[in-house]
Each structure stands twice: as structure tokens, then as C-alpha cells.
TrEMBL record:
Superkingdom: Bacteria
Domain Spore coat protein U/FanG: 27-147
Keywords (A to Z) from UniProt: Capsid protein, Signal, Virion
Annotated transmembrane regions: none
Keyword NAD: no
Cross-referenced PANTHER family: PROTEIN U-RELATED
Name of this protein: Spore coat protein U domain-containing protein
Signal peptide positions (record): 1-23
Length: 150
């Protein structure tokens, strides 16, 4: 009986040591993230701005472009000079002709700091009667690339 008791104690002790050896353990998991600043045009493709028919007087047209910049991102909007510029003067080019009509194009705001919320960039294009009154009759167009950074 003492021999059986001894075996039982050894068996119980082994079982206890096994469960201690297989007891759970824990570890710390560290997570990191780097949030980068940036801006993007929201649901926006190519935009067409149409002066329509010009028959006298200066004419301005405008449109709005939805944008989002992450909180704290300093943004800058740039407009290139278009396909038909003369130096820095943007010009509309006559379709199938040599006519050119100077115009101005501005974006407001053209810089700022993002808030993480959507906002709009207003684009305004202007032609003056003095610039188009001597131009040949016809259709005119230009293509400008608008960029927002970062």
C-alpha cells in the first residue's frame, strides 16, 4: 500500500508539474503607425470651363473643385501655363487656325493648411474684350494642368 501511495504521489506531482510547465504566458505587442500628410481631389475628373459665345465685353467664368487635405498638411495649388502660352501668358488657341486669345486663370485659395475636412478650390478664368475683339472668328481652347501638393 505504501508502494501504491508512493506511485500515486509521484503521478500527482508529475501532473502538477506538467500543468505548471504548460501554464499560459503573456507578451507585449507594440503597434506603430506613421500618418502621412496629403491632399487629393474628391470625385473629380476633367473639368470644362466654357466662356460660351463672346459678343462684347469682358467675361469671367468660374467653377469649384472639391478637395481634401489631411489635418495639418500645408497645401499649395499650382496651375501650369497651358498648352498655348506665350511665356507666362496663358492663351486660348483657335481650332484649325493661328488665332490666340490671352486669358487669366486663378485658383483661390491657392495655399493653406488642411483640416481633414473637404473644401473647395474656386477657379476663375477671365477674358477681356480688348484681348479677343480683333481675334479671328472660331472656336478656341486650352488645356491647363492643376496640381495640389503635398
Amino acid at each position: 500500500m505504501a508502494k501504491n501511495l508512493h506511485r500515486l504521489l509521484v503521478l500527482l506531482l508529475s501532473a502538477m508539474l506538467s500543468s505548471v510547465a504548460w501554464a499560459g504566458s503573456s507578451s507585449t505587442l507594440q503597434l506603430h503607425i506613421l500618418v502621412l500628410g496629403g491632399c487629393n481631389f474628391k470625385n473629380w475628373g476633367d473639368v470644362t470651363m466654357d466662356f460660351g459665345n463672346l459678343a462684347g465685353g469682358d467675361k469671367s467664368i468660374s467653377t469649384r473643385v472639391p478637395v481634401n487635405c489631411s489635418t495639418g498638411s500645408n497645401f499649395k495649388v499650382t496651375l501650369d501655363n497651358g498648352l498655348h502660352a506665350n511665356g507666362t501668358q496663358r492663351r486660348l488657341a483657335q481650332k484649325n487656325g493661328a488665332g490666340r486669345v490671352p486669358y487669366s486663370l486663378i485658383a483661390t485659395p491657392d495655399s493653406g493648411t488642411g483640416s481633414g475636412r473637404d473644401f473647395e478650390i474656386n477657379l476663375t478664368a477671365t477674358v477681356t474684350q480688348n484681348d479677343y475683339q480683333a481675334s479671328p472668328i472660331g472656336q478656341y481652347s486650352d488645356t491647363v494642368i492643376m496640381t495640389i501638393e503635398p
